[in-house]
Amino acid sequence: MNRSITKSFQTFDEELECVICTGRLLNAKFLQCLHSFCAECLERCVTVRGNIEGTCRLRSIPCPLCREETILPDNGINGLKPNNLANKVVQALEGNDHCAKLMDSELCCESCRTKRSRAVAYCQDCRHFICRDCVGSHSSLKQILSGHRIKPLNDLRRSLVKTKNGYKDANHGKTCYQHNGQVKTHFCETCSMLVCIRCTGDTHPEPHHVCVEAKDAVKTRLRSIQELVEQGHDKQKEVADALRTIDRQRNEARHVVRCLQQEINDAADAAVENALKSIDFQRLTLLKETDRLDEFLTGKYDELEAARLGVGSLLSNARSFGVKLMKNPSVKVLLTFDKLNTTLHNLVSEQWDKASVDYIHSITKNVRFESQENAQWVSVGTLVDPNQWSLSRSIPIPESKSGEVSSMSYCSSGSLFLAHFNGVVEEMTVDGKITHVLNTGSDIRDMAVLSDRTIVILDGTWQIAVYDPTGKKSRMIHSKNGSTGFTCLTADADDMIFAGEFHRDTISVFAKDGRQVESIPAGGITPYRIVVANSGQIVLSHSPASVSVLNRDGDVECTVHRKQWQYALVCCDTKENIYILSGSRDEKKLISVHKYTLEGYIVECVVRHVEVDVGSWHPRIDCTPDGNLALVTKTKVDIYSSRSVIERERKELEQEDSERNEMQEENSQP
């Protein structure tokens, strides 16, 4: 045994001491208080206490150290849990001591009183090294020492194996240290350990333990191993097939990814080429316009220069003629005076048309070039996950209301409100159960629901009616300043009411009590659908089949329009995404829904070319509080949910990482 290990064992030798017999623990057993004692010492304690109490069967035993009571099992002390660590340490120490004594050439008899006789054998039952005389005594006292097993020291020394740290017994582990070296010929199935024949009736008795001969246990396990080896052979084939399948599918996946990358590169190259062609065409067009501007300005300045040169030439000639007349006065002065005088007077009094020059100069000064690099975003395309969105459930609309839905809205609690043209508002649960009905008695054009379940309605007169949560009409909001009414309405997260107005190109903002708090220019747009993003930006559906995003100053930040759209309706989720429901211009029953950013960039297709029964009115869409998309047609409300495989896998991996980190933190805490 390693000397450093032996030394370490000796440093806590007190922990291996039984306080009852003051010797090393032998077949140590745990009490309920986790103190350990020799099994034989505990048996003696049970016997003594039984004699005191006058009973042969105790139900419990107090700990000799702390006095805590331990309930005894049916089989008494043997049923207590063994202190395996202490037993193994003691066994190792005793085995090491035994080997050390065997190697001592001056080993003396441990049985004789004189302690001077040299030992020649070892009694495995007395556990003493004995001399020749004591060996003889064992033979002569057969009735007392019958059955004691005596081993010559030379035979024991031959069983020692030399190691780099000393010697060890080659039979270590094969004999039972609890029963004086009995060979372990049996195997306890319950404890999974080798035991001797005496252990089967002492520390491993039936019915609490199942012991079989070791050779039978070996045969049983060999048969089990053989079956597992055969199963492993079949499993190896299965693993090989799986690896080939994985390798094939990995190569297919790589091929698909390479094809996608090539398609993206081709699309990007084509987009760049088309963009460059478009830019080059615009550049040539603009340069031609500048050439025409240069020709116009040059011609104008040439005309002005020619006019000034003409006046200068006439003036120079008239002055020269006048100077000659003054130098040579004659009758000729009388003949030319009138014409010369008139000419010089006209030339001197002539006013320069500076306004024409300033006009031309103003054109030069004010002409400029405005870059429109952000006016149009060039899209290469999108990588579409075919399983990203799918129809999760449908809520049927009662036949009596079929085809009459004019608007829908979700409140923060998750309830769905459906407004019908005939003036009825129905509140429904997520499974389609109607929980509340409000009859307004007026046609409904549009509707919004506030956080406290107040219902705001655009009625048949195109004015706004507000109903409190009890269903009572609390106020009316009328359009002003020459407007004939409102076109649409919505409410933001702060319960502010936004309404578009006819013929005013204005978005009016009202508080819940009806006060107008803001008027926002709509950039020349009359909307028929309006939503407000959490960031405060206003999203409008308007003709012709377009969606525009405005800031709170009324500036149009972007517009989305497609020629193939017949109409475009919009809603907005809590993550600043907008969803555009569009109807096909060619097929009126085909609709699609695309997700865009507030900057007008397309993100993905949610619903593509779905055939619906739209009736005489367009479908409606809205985002649910949990991030799904609700689509209302003539007969039902369809709920679409995101089913992204990639996103789901990413979230599952994040969840696993989070749980793993939590477990590591818990394990690291003292």
UniProtKB/TrEMBL annotation:
Residues 649-670 are annotated as: Disordered. Pfam families: zf-C3HC4 (PF00097). Residues 649-663 have a biased composition (Basic and acidic residues). Keywords: Metal-binding, Zinc, Zinc-finger. SMART domains: BBOX, RING. InterPro entries: 6-blade_b-propeller_TolB-like, TRIM45/56/19-like, Znf_B-box, Znf_C3HC4_RING-type, Znf_RING, Znf_RING/FYVE/PHD, Znf_RING_CS. Residues 104-153, 171-213 form the B box-type domain. This is Uncharacterized protein. It comes from Strongylocentrotus purpuratus.
